Amino acid sequence: MLVNLDLHIHSKYSMAVSADMQLPEIAREAARKGVKIVATGDCLHPLWLDAIKKLPKDDGLFLQGDTYFVLSVEVEDKSRVHHLIFLPDTAQAEQLQEAFAPHCANLSSDGRPRLHLNGCEIADYVLEAGGLLGPAHAFTPWTGIFAYFGSIAECYQEKAQQIRFIELGLSADTDYADRIADLSTRTFLSNSDAHSPRSNKLAREFNQMELASFSYQDLILAIRREGGRRIVKNVGLFPEEGKYNRTACTRCYRQYSQAQKDEFMGRCPDCAGRIKIGVVDRVNLLADYEEPVHPLHRPPYLHIIPLAEIIALALGHKSVTTAGVQKSWSELTGSLTEIEVLMQADLAELKADPRVIEAIQNFRMGRVKVQPGGGGKYGVVGLAQAAGVEGKKDGQRSLFDF
To answer: What does the buried/exposed string (b/e) look like for 298-317 if buried means 16 or more CB atoms within 10 Å of the residue's CB?
Structure first.
């Protein structure tokens, strides 16, 4: 069976996260989105773990309503690199709590704990507990593995061969990562890293997997590509929409080339802010290939735009939270999930403003233009207003390519 999964989110116990990120709200919004399995996030936080323990357990997953949760946590190592961890049971979460406690000052105060350990040491503890781990948002210039290391082995040392996945992050996709030969054996995950249950945040990126059952074992087998389980599609934002896609000033967001960054010694000549290297330029520095070389096991990557953003563009609203956008979103998802509306539904049967229907059609046809983001500012997505308008030329041309 095909299952949609978002395997990286945060709870209300992480810094800068909405107070609405609680299990019932996450489960409800995931179901409306069309995602069946969601990571818990923050499972080492004592209060969040207590809340998870109250849920019925089913084959290594935890059930809230119609949504399954898998135990997960993101941790930061002493180099500032973030790691995504999956665990089979609360007993293993408690084992990691105990193991990490001497190396962490904020285990009980932040759902994303900072550890005074390197990547190899963290991997050793996680693997001993029967868990699985890999780099979170691997290309992010502040906390991704490739911000500080040139390879998986540099970070995880002798544990590198046991790193079976990397998370791409919002500013990268499969075409970016598959220019690096070292990553060809790893599974790629595309997750939301959501800090809010809003429809344009939760599952804005997700994975579609072939599973035999709703179980922790099947999920891990899919990540490992074993037993007939596998990821069949990565789904996510256009990477240019990510806020670290291009090299840019972190204060005024003016964008620069890599050569200009070096010429200005990393300081913006306009405002003296710090110029941070973007994912595009970092990949160019690390790349073994001019063009991506996809291994046979690599699934296709489908670029999407959250439905609320499409509606806002169609209606001319500046925010996805306006009453008009929310009303249209609720009407469209009354009997369908958001993923069904975006990818599968017969547009002739949808009840919505004609402008919204046309915008969904333009999205499906690949009539998308993106003004790239950088320096911490998201890119800006635009849709063609008339059929036949030339859209995005590179990458995915149409949803019907899939």
So the answer is: bbebbbbbbbbbbbbbbeeb
